[in-house]
Amino acid sequence: MTRRALTRALTYPVFGLCDVGTGDVALALGLSAFGVTLTSGLVNTGHPHGGVVASIAVLFMTAPVLFARRNPLLAATTLSLGALVNLWLIAHMVRCGAALPAVFFVAFAIGLRCRRRPAVVAMALLGVNLVSQGYSDPNFASVKAALLVLMLPISIGFAAGGLLLRQHNSAVATLRARTIELRDQRERNAQLAVAADRARVAGEFDSYLHDQVSDIAATARLGQETIASRPDLAKDAFISIQSTGRATLVHMRNVVGNLRDDASTEPQPVLSQLDRLLGRITRADARLRVEGDPRLLPPGVELSGYRIVEQALLALENYPAARIDVVVDFKPDSLQLTVVGPSAHGADVRAALGAATERAALHGGTLRTEAQGALRKTVVLLPLVAGHA
Length: 389
Known about the structure:
Blueprint: H1 3-10, E1 13-14, E2 17-21, H2 22-40, H3 52-57, H4 72-89, H5 96-113, H6 116-136, H7 144-226, H8 231-262, H9 274-281, E3 285-292, H10 299-313, E4 323-330, E5 334-342, H11 349-362, E6 366-372, E7 375-383
Parallel strand pairs: 3-4
Antiparallel strand pairs: 1-2, 4-5, 5-7, 6-7
């Protein structure tokens, strides 16, 4: 199994939640099972053991890793309260083998997802958890201060690792946005250059036609004047007109052929290629659904619809655990595009959605976006009437 396939397998969404993957479930079950074996007496630790109550209480110090990536602050709060409950209810019992990894994982999730103020609060709650473990775990009975001196910096280190990963993801998303902007700008510059060149060729060709028609008119006038007195001159004049006319037609064909050759031979992307776009532009679990009556739309709408979805994806998170849904709905008189997924934090969301809004406005369409908790839903409606399509 490749590293990418393994990552996707561990972070594949479960319970219908885009931020809870199979890896989170496996970690929560593993730490919880280990914690239960420590407190129930299945493993001899050389210290007192508890019964059912202790086995249930320890779950509050391990199970919150299940939703740590979805809501790190809630996970840190639960771990802190769980440690206090264990300190008060069943004080002296070994739990650190399962509880400390849970603290480190939640610290990593805090760095990955939380902003400054929530991160400080969440890390303070983890500090409460560590203090409670120092007073309740027999392994730390004589090294309570050493526990904080050692474990708190380790937790901060895990949080720093999550922060670095978040900054990396943000930088990658920003680079993706800039790359698409540069590509669009390059396409616009190329189109402007082609338009300017065609305008120049059209101006030169207009002058050429004017000169040729003037020559033909002058020759025809000469032939008309000499047709009675000098039939030979008139014949030569008509032969010259024929030759000039043919040369003008040949030149016209060459010019028109060159103008066609100047056009880009690379086909423009269309809506039928959205599945390839989703596989190329994002590492998330992206799913495409087509509704209505699929049909061929005007080229401008096809291209704009493709680009709008591309830009809307830049406003979403780009990691394997994310779930993104793209719906293309072919209505009788309009095309509706819906993109739903976890909202990005570090990417230039405003720029991406602004570009998508401008493209929709070119066709008389609208773009509506709203954040629903951790999710962002963007709905675009493009009319298919003749005036805009």
